[in-house]
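Our consortium's second objective concerns turning raw sequence data into structural hypotheses that experimental partners can test. To show how far this objective has progressed, the report includes one record in full. It was chosen at random from the queue rather than selected for favorable results. The single chain below, 311 residues long, was entered without modification.
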Amino acid sequence: MKNSKDDYKLEDVLLGALLIASKSKNVEINYKKIEELSYNYSKEDLQLPAWDAPVFPEKLNNETIDFILLGNSINFAFNDFKTGEKYIHEYKGVPFKGAYGMWAALKGALDEGLPILDADYLENLSSPETKKIFDGVNRIPMLNERVSILNEVGRVLNNKYGGHFYNLVERADGHLFNEGKGLVELLVEDFPSFRDDAIYHGKRISFAKRAQLGSAMVYEKFLTGGSRLFDEKDVERLTVFADYELPKALRSMGIFEYYAPLANRIDEIVKEINDIKGSNAVNALHIDYRLWLDGRNYKDAKAHMAITTAY
């Protein structure tokens, strides 16, 4: 993706992370703990998520692509910023927490016949209508920001993609990264709400968290049916997605020590595991999902919370 400001390219996410790591003064990596974690993970059969919970569509079709990418446009901030309480929404009598609560709300709306995948509906969605969709056991944080994003999504889809995300996937033609024409790149380029970049020490840094996560979820969901929608080389270029559960897990495991300069990248764990296994058995997607699961298991650990749509 071309950027007239400093020719920053979206695929340079890791280079941006490396810059941040090299300038960090408050976090240190415990490499011994990385070795231990990598060894333990190497003994597991690490899996990619199938996204087969009841809150996701079962069929592998265009509607599912629309649903997943729509959800990822608002896939952020699920804890109350004052109390830390997770958002909860019930679907068919079952309470779902956090991001799954958001997916539950969307799936419930879809089941009820609300045209949430229709760009015209999204473009004109009001705050009261959105509140009704997401009202659950408690209130979802940052409702106004979500309304604005859903309106933007509808507007961009109508203006550029015939009203549907699946047309965006078709235009990407099997690529996640392709000189500005891949799915991840197009999401960041055409949908301002998917951008999470900032200037850091004079350089533009982007994590492309939700653009990468949404693309990965589409890939993983369709992979369950044997369909590989994207070039495998592009999939290998995806990074671990910035998420508040991951640093919580890494700190609880003793890998992050919050007091001195940081000197390495998260994908060292991938290399360590593959070195032990003797093959390219895992990639960043496997590690992202496994760390995310671990983060949820550390119930007493607190995640860093920031009022942002970035994660």
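The partners drew two points from this record. The first strand starts at residue 28 and ends at 29. Residues 143-160 form the longest helix (18 residues). Both points have been shared with the crystallography group to help prioritize constructs.
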